[in-house]
Amino acid sequence: MAWTAGVVLCTGLTTALQAGVVEDAPPPKPEPVTISELPLPPTAPADTPGSCTRAVNPRGTGCISASEYGLQEGPGAMWDNRHVLMTVTFTGAPAAPAPASIYSGEQVIAIRLDGTKFPNGDPWKCLTCGVPEQNRRGTLITANPMGESDAHGDKEALAPRMPLDHPQAFPDGKRVLAGPNVIDCGPHELTSTACTPDKVRIFPVRWGRTPDGSGPGSVFREQRLNPDGVHMNWSAFAPSPGGVEQFGYLGKLVFNPKPKMGEPNVPRYDIENVYLLLNNTDPTFNQFSIDPKNPKKLVHNEPRGQIGEMRGWTRDGRNVIGMGFPEAGNPDLFITNLTDGASHRLTRDPAYTDPMMMSPDDKWFVAMDTRTTTRHLYYSAMQGIPPLTDTLTLPIAVCCYNDGNRRFFQPILIDAKGDRGRYRGQQLNAGPGTPGSFSDPDWNGRADPAWSPDGTRVIYWQALVTAPACGEGRKQPCPTSTAPGGRRTRLMMAHLTSRKPMPTRKVTPKPINVDWAIALRPGDPLPKRPLELPAGTFVLNGKVAGTANVRVEYHPAGGIKTVDVRYTGYTDDGQHIIDGTESATRAKPGFLSPVVWQADLRASGVQTGTKKTSPGGFVLSFRGPEKGELVTTIDGREYRSPPVSR
Questions:
Q1: Keyword Signal on this protein (predicted)?
Q2: Which residues have CB under 8 Å from 469's CB, separation 6+?
Q3: How confident is the model at residue 624, as a pLDDT?
Q4: How far apart are CA 344 and CA 347, in angstroms?
Q5: Which residues of the chain have pLDDT under 50?
Q6: N or C: lower Cβ tally within 10 Å for the chain?
Q7: φ and ψ at 594, to 5 degrees?
């Protein structure tokens, strides 16, 4: 079934979105979009062994879970313009030695985009089901990619598993990067009939960090394959004086058929020529630095090296995309040039944005973004505030971008010049919001979107709001799924019908050298990240007018204790003018300690309004709001923080 999406430009849900001075290029015209749902394996009636019977799937090729975990991280477009990859959770399989027993657990499937079917009659093919154990040696791990992140409470090791998240095709069509593994069918294309389970090999990817090459590799997450099929970038958590931090990396994948050292000691891919994408020697790479001509002045630097969490590559393979924090409460996407570290801001909307994909010609991108809701505007709607107290508040506040497992993303199409003026892109699945339809707001986008190599189609997946984010104790009852079998996930395709297919772009592998970053050799200790803010009392001049008087205090053991700011006519763009006071205090050191946020701010210029906390402040932690309230009012519209219970 296909639907025609409403042709609507996102021009700002409120006047809070009239963000400031960016490129003067006129916005693109909205374009027609047709939305269709892609086929998936049948839905198991229950997650119990044997529930996937021949009555449910007559071909005996498996069923996926009806739960919100039926689909996993993905999708990934294949280079033939005919298939898309998706990680799914098979369930209900019979016990071995039944042939259908192989359709169990987390697996990667390839799905036809053109409505045709594989020779067995299915519109999909499982690429990893039934691969013999000897063909996937060394792929079971117990390490947790979130293991250094106390914020997520996941320090414990996990049960042995073979992660297959974020499947991404190599340009040769014969290999797929999925989690810390490469799925390889030798001389055969993975989607061909010649590629049978006994011909598939799954090789682990090892990131060696010990000086002599011994031991297991380090754990990484959010891996993204370069379009050249040779390089990869990723993120990884690390302990820090304040609790935990995250770095972005890139390196080269090299097949090692006979390793001499290191675990797993099996044929594998090693990551070589690793760069940690941080500059800790040039102060201009810092968000804020002390003015070299006046030690009592702070400088808010132009964005450089804005990596944050790694989000991928430009499709020419020469630049990386990451998260940056250019203004208070507003994480945004940046393209960072690997030659000089300069960062170009793509998004400016005060909503939360995260997963994204550039178009094949790098002239557009699709972001999974929350700009169709007002959920985050209580802390971000007042724009033009420098991210000073954000050093304490933002890592906690952005945790509210979800509600348990519920995200509030929808796919937004934006040209590469980014948000500007009142242009905020085009919601691909805009529509009346009818329950069960492609525009139903209870179906929320997840990570990541994918773009067909010919530039005409965008594939994304969604999950239906599920308890405890609805139902008992909530205003919203849990909706009934109208997807096949009551499934609470679905895979969608947006066809950009006015676009002509472009030739598949081929990226020739070339060495990547990042002179401004840190070449990280095995055994090198992780570098110290520069202080987010220096300790002391400073004046920060607005780039156009006004001042901010800033006081920063650290705990003796490390980590910021207090940031206190008074704004007087402060403006960086001449349009957003800020007056008033704000502060953030973490009384005890440690990432999990609560923060008390005090704000009494006034906005004038293109926005008028206030940003205020309740008496005693707004107390929040990674568990969510704990006490008090933060209310932002812009041009007469009020945005309140989520209830303390959420």
A1: yes
A2: 403, 404, 405, 406
A3: 74
A4: 10
A5: 11-22, 150-154, 645-646
A6: N
A7: -70, 160
- Let me know: does 278 contact 529? Beta carbons within 8 Å: yes
The token duo for 119 is 């020779």
pLDDT of residue 367: 97
SS3 content of the chain, % helix, strand, coil (to 5): 5, 40, 55
The confidence score (pLDDT) of residue 242 equals 66
The model carries a pTM of: 0.93
Q: Distances in Å between the alpha carbon of 527 and those of 21, 247, 524?
A: 35, 10, 9
Residue 496: CB partners within 8 Å, gap ≥ 6?
31, 32, 33, 413, 455, 456, 457, 458
> Residue 557 carries which side chain, given as an amino acid letter?
A
Tell me if 448 sits within 8 A of 461, measured CB to CB.
Answer: no
Count CA atoms within 13 Å of residue 308 on its CB side. Answer: 22
How many contiguous H segments (helices) and E segments (strands) does the chain have?
A: 2, 40
Task: Give residue-wise pLDDT tens across range 623-632.
Answer: 777 899 999 9
Largest CA distance in the chain: 77
Burial class (CB in 10 A: 0-12, 13-18, 19+), 584: buried
User: Which of 276, 269, 167 has its CA nearest to residue 224?
Assistant: 167
Q: What are phi and psi of 91, to 5 degrees?
A: -150, 165
- What is the C-alpha separation between 302 and 539, in angstroms, rounded? 18
H helix intervals, 258-328: none
